[in-house]
Amino acid sequence: MIDLPGSGAYTLAEPTVWPVSATPATSRIVYAAAHVVADPLGDNTPGSPAAVDWDATLRFRRHLWSHGLRVADAMDTAQRNMGLDWAATRELIRRSAAEARSFGDPATLVACGAGTDHAPDAADLHTITAAYAEQLETVQSAGAGVIIMASRQLARVAAGPQDYHQVYGKLFGLADRPVILHWLGEMFDPQLAGYWGSRDVDAATESFLELIHAHASMVDGVKVSLLDEEHEVRLRAALPEGVKLYTGDDFNYPSLIKSGSHALLGIFDAIAPAAAAALQVLDAAEAACDEAGRERLLAAYDEILDPTVPLSRKIFETPTYHYKTGIVFLAWLNGHQDAFAMVNAAQSARSLLHLSEVFRLADQAGLLADQELAVHRMKALLAVNGL
User: Fold this and answer.
1) Which one of 70, 87, 340, 345 has the largest count of C-beta atoms within 10 Å of its C-beta?
2) Neighbour-count burial of 122, counting CB atoms closer than 10 A to its CB (0-12 exposed, 13-18 middle, 19+ buried)
3) Residue 240, SS3 per DSSP
4) Whole-model pTM?
5) Is residue 116 a contact partner of residue 131, using CB atoms and an 8 Å limit?
6) What are 177-234's pLDDT values in tens digits?
7) Distance of alpha carbon 89 from its chain centroid, rounded?
8) 204 vs 97, 170, 213, CA distance in Å?
9) Nearest to 143 by CA among 103, 83, 87, 85
10) Contact residues for 99 (Cβ-Cβ < 8 A; gap 6+)
């Protein structure tokens, strides 16, 4: 039992023991967008260069691979544009790809974000393209897959869809294999409003699809984070054959994955054991020979993932871009890192009431791996805050 602000005396649920299998799911391709672990003794005050605990950061990636998940690295979950500077990002890409070789092919096991954040003052399409090209080369040289991230600089400079098509068209020509395109909604980053050339989502979608159809052979898939289930289903149906839809919807992922989306999700950083177990059940459901067996397995899939949705919705509540704090908080509670610390001091971005509710919901979803450790650490956090 623990006294939680906002909840009072809380009795923990019966612990859940999740199966561990490094065998990836076969029915869906799934990436967990991974966080970085800050060095608790480093100067990670706002605006300082990121000081990263590399051992713990790589250990967490091994945790994700051990559950059969792929890793999406150097993305917004790793605090791109929110504290992880380019020097640390470049090192993260190199180290993560090298670590993946212990598990298999880095190009399969890890995909890294290539963006323009190291050129914040880029003010024309040529400079933006060159910035993208530099990061793309960094990812490819490391041996990882490429995710072309949405660019704040391009969003600021582009006059319309044609400018996006010009820049991305040149990047496709530089890629040595098909890439993943990332459409990150403004709830995750307000500076990306109007991406693809319009603030109207339907018009932006038309521009996005035009680009994809023109370069389908170089697009592995699209990662869409708009938190709009109906829009994602329509977009998925409109993609060229062979181009995957990787859901980035941290609110509606169970139904979207079940209905056919692949996944690239920040919440899978926090719920990896449950996600992996659910995906194995989904594999079995889609291989089932009889309808009754399939329905039974799909119900088991729902039973695993449905309790994780309130947790995810809490972690990703408005302002959504502060979701990284909850992700790191759970990694700390679960013993994946020694300190609740983040680059850019982002651990302060959520309130104690918010974190207390994250604790409760994680327990309800069976995602406190060691309840005794989690309670000990939660009590320590409360004590530091005078409770």
Assistant:
1) 70
2) buried
3) coil
4) 0.96
5) yes
6) 999 999 999 999 999 999 999 999 999 999 999 999 999 999 999 999 999 999 999 9
7) 15
8) 33, 20, 14
9) 103
10) 58, 61, 62
